[in-house]
Amino acid sequence: VDFPKDFPKNFLWGGATAANQIEGAWDIDGKGLTTAEVVRKADDRKKMSMNIVDPSSIKAAINDSTTANYPKRRGIDFYHHYKEDIKLFAEMGFKVFRFSIAWARIFPNGDNLQPNEKGFEFYDRVLDELENYGIEPLITLSHYEMPLALTQKQNGWLDRATIADFTRYTEVVFKRYRGRVRYWLTFNEINTGTWGFHETGVVDSHLDKKEQENVRYQALHHQLVASALATKQLHEIDPKAKMGCMLARMQTYPATCRPEDVRAAQMEDQKNLFFTDVQARGEYPEFMNRYFAENGIQIKMAEKDQEILASSPVDFVSFSYYMTTVTSAEAGEEVNGNMATGGRNKYLEESDWGWQIDPIGLRITLNEMWDRYRKPLFIVENGLGALDKLEDGKVHDEYRIDYLRKHIEQMKEAIKDGVQLMGYTMWGPIDLISFSTSEMSKRYGFIYVDQDDEGNGSLKRIRKDSFYWYKKVISSNGADL
Ligand code: BG6
């Protein structure tokens, strides 16, 4: 046995982004309005705003043709800066770049029958540029957005018709990029659809909690079926390409060793892993069937759905990792996380946004995910949102280096534990618009972008200290941390 193991030679080091957080150019070249572009920015740094939508706020957003209150419309103008940005990624030595395609660039209304050629041309250019530098693309087909028209017409994923709209989109994308893209993901952090609108495009603010839960799991069932169908399509159209699922993995610890707490934590974990269970193993796990039955949740399935799920499991399992939480059998103090709510862990430090930092949790997570699925794993998000200071043209972000170093050390330990890990795309290699609060000042990047929360600034790109550090990490294949 070749022990101790280390990062494999072909390990995919890189960074991850999403269309609605970087592209801008929200209303040009035929693009339709997306669900992400009608969510106002948060008034309070610690309060997430991505689900505060109702029919009247959507109407107000449609009537407002500015980007002022809707920062995801302007992003960091990657649409016009992609060459410069990819060049900087190449300078760091990226092997892979994760980005998403905005569905509404390809099908502006979601139900169009013919794709929008201009929308495709943008992604053609991005792929050309990545190929120039030998950077492998990893594409998310739906990252927290969809054509708003589908929400207006059929309440997003709640309607089964959205499955056909989605697979019409994925089919043209796979055909166009056959042979050019090896790694794909269907839905970003699919489990967060239990939190509502941003993932499913379902407006349910008028419903009570119980009805909301029902509606959300129904919409998510449609996404799970669509994900399996897209996996099948990909395998037929481009047999060498690989499809992954994507989970916001939220490991939770029991608050004490009291069996009631341990059991409560186990259930929390099962609810989180449910999605990947379906996507990787091809069926609804029994514990969720029981949960649905006991909580009055009735999922309408079409006759063939179970067969579809079983026939096309994903090739690899990807997830984001930002934090862990704590669960107790009783309701306790809540920690504000990346939409995660759970107990606070007194042993951990936290970020400026109250996200608890737990590098060892990453090793635990990797081991457990590998044991559970025995499919290659890919960490497609991990990073630190912080308030950076630009001084004399420099950003000394040693706190970010420290965060990433500690997480990468634990990745290395997990690899030595025997985990098969394909790659690591750090979240937000370039500062971008925050998902949960739509702030610019929640910065993740190795590259600083000169833009403030109001959208003022030159958009100039500036290398932070962490830029040089990550470059060294990649060139030494994780040896020099
Ligand atoms: C993940 C999302 O949940 O976390 C990203 O997939 C997001 O889109 C990232 O940006 C960090 O969250 P935030 O709210 O700090 O941007």
Question: Could you please describe the fold and organization of this structure?
Answer:
It is a single chain. This protein has a single domain (12-475), classed as Alpha-Beta Barrel (TIM Barrel). α3 (78-92) packs parallel to α5, α7 runs parallel beside α9 (209-237) and α9 crosses α12 (305-311). By secondary structure, it is an alpha/beta fold. The strands form five sheets. It has an eight-stranded parallel β-barrel, surrounded by five helices. A two-stranded parallel sheet has the order 6-8. Strands 9-10 form a two-stranded antiparallel ribbon. The protein is built from 15 helices and 16 strands.
Defining key terms:
globular; alpha/beta; TIM Barrel; eight-stranded parallel beta barrel; binds 6-O-phosphono-beta-D-glucopyranose; 481 residues; 15 helices
Rg measurement, Å: 21 Å
Q: Any low-confidence stretches, pLDDT <50, length ≥5?
A: 335-340
> Count the helices. How many?
15
Might you state the CATH topology name?
Answer: TIM Barrel
- State which percent range the strand residues make up: 5-15%
Judged by helices, strands and strand pairing, the structural class is alpha/beta
Can you tell me the overall shape? globular
Largest β-sheet summary: 8 strands, parallel, barrel
Oligomeric state of the chains present here: single chain
CATH superfamily: Glycosidases
Ligand list? 6-O-phosphono-beta-D-glucopyranose
Strand order of the largest sheet: 1-2-3-4-5-7-13-14
CATH architecture: Alpha-Beta Barrel
Number of domains: 1
Average pLDDT metric: 95
Reading off the top of the CATH hierarchy, the class is best stated as: Alpha Beta
What is the helical fraction, as a range of percent?
A: 25-40%
Tell me the number of strands.
16
What separation lies between the terminal Cα atoms? 26 Å
